[in-house]
């Protein structure tokens, strides 16, 4: 077995062991702290692999490279919720009876009685949430992106074409979520197999966008920002803001649904068709 195969194997085994431990602990204790720790385990697997296989730490992609790349960070931060709400808008245009903002969970929590009052609240709350909430998730998302985009993707591009590598990377990322999805996260526990499939497809779509941001900036931080901005949507998701009934997670209006996520799907398809980075640069780019 050559050294690269050993590194793939070591990384894979480390990921599976840590995934088993912390998803198992969450299953037993139902404490969200184990989910937070779980998000750091892919990065821990990279460090373990680099130490065990004596790979060193010369290619980490941790420099943010802001100079000349501000527009990509700006789009990752602010374009992500826009894409999410575009998908929600499409959903509510199709399922108009589901749009009940004054009976939504958030409206009931804050006690708004009129549409004017409610949308004034949203006009203040949503921009603040978009601005502030992603910051709180940056480190957890770094725990994932340091591995999936900063370590695994460059290695896969050395063995496969760029597009193939991005798809494989997204599939692995999606399947990594399988234990938690099977426990009911995002898609409920009624259809665990379909939930895992849907999450894997979702991660492939997001992975195409994140790989694009990574190869534009040569830094894991831009995908981290995108990832954190998307995760922050959980705090002010379209279903919480605009629906009374429980949403069908496979459809929408939240971004994990096929219609709710249509904004990301369109972006990913365009990128996948039109964009291929300089593969040599991806292979040799340093810190």
Structure overview:
The chain is an all-alpha fold. The protein has 13 helices and no strands. The two termini are 27 Å apart. 41% of the residues are buried.
**Which regions are unreliable across 5 or more consecutive residues at pLDDT < 50?**
none
Order of helices and strands: HHHHHHHHHHHHH
What is the count of DSSP helices, taking H or I runs of 4+ residues? 13
Query: Largest beta sheet, briefly?
Result: none
pLDDT averaged residue by residue = 94
Nearest-angstrom radius of gyration? 20 Å
**Percentage of β-strand residues:** under 5%
Report the helical percentage.
55-70%
Q: Structural class, please? A: mainly alpha
Distance between the termini: 27 Å
* Strands, total number: 0
In short:
The chain is an all-alpha fold. It contains 13 helices and no strands.
Features:
globular; single chain; 287 residues; mainly alpha
Write the layout of secondary structure elements.
Elements: H1 3-29, H2 33-52, H3 70-94, H4 105-110, H5 115-132, H6 138-157, H7 162-176, H8 178-182, H9 192-217, H10 221-231, H11 238-242, H12 262-274, H13 279-284
């Amino acid at each position: 077995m050559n050294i690269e195969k050993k590194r793939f194997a070591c990384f894979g085994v480390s990921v599976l062991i840590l995934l088993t431990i912390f998803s198992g602990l969450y299953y037993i204790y139902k404490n969200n702290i184990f989910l937070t720790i779980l998000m750091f385990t892919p990065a821990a697997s990279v460090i373990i692999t680099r130490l065990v296989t004596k790979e060193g730490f010369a290619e980490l992609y941790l420099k943010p490279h802001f100079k000349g790349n501000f527009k990509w960070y700006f789009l990752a931060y602010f374009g992500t919720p826009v894409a999410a709400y575009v998908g929600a808008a499409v959903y509510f245009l199709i399922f108009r009876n589901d749009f009940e903002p004054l009976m939504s969970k958030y409206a009931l929590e804050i006690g708004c009685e009129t549409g004017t009052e409610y949308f004034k609240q949203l006009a203040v709350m949503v921009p603040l949430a978009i601005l502030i909430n992603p910051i709180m998730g940056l480190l957890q998302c770094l725990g994932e992106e340091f591995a999936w985009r900063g370590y695994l993707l460059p290695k896969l591009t050395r063995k496969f074409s760029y597009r193939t590598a991005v798809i494989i990377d997204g599939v692995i990322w999606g399947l990594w979520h399988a234990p938690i999805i099977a426990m009911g996260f995002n898609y409920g526990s009624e259809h665990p197999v379909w939930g895992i499939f849907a999450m894997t497809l979702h991660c492939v779509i997001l992975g195409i966008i994140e790989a694009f941001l990574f190869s534009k900036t040569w830094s894991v931080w831009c995908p981290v920002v995108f990832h954190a901005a998307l995760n922050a949507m959980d705090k002010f998701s379209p279903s919480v803001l605009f629906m009374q009934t429980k949403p069908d997670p496979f459809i929408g209006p939240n971004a994990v649904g096929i219609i709710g996520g249509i904004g990301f799907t369109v972006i990913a398809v365009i990128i996948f068709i039109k964009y291929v980075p300089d593969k040599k640069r991806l292979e040799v780019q340093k810190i």
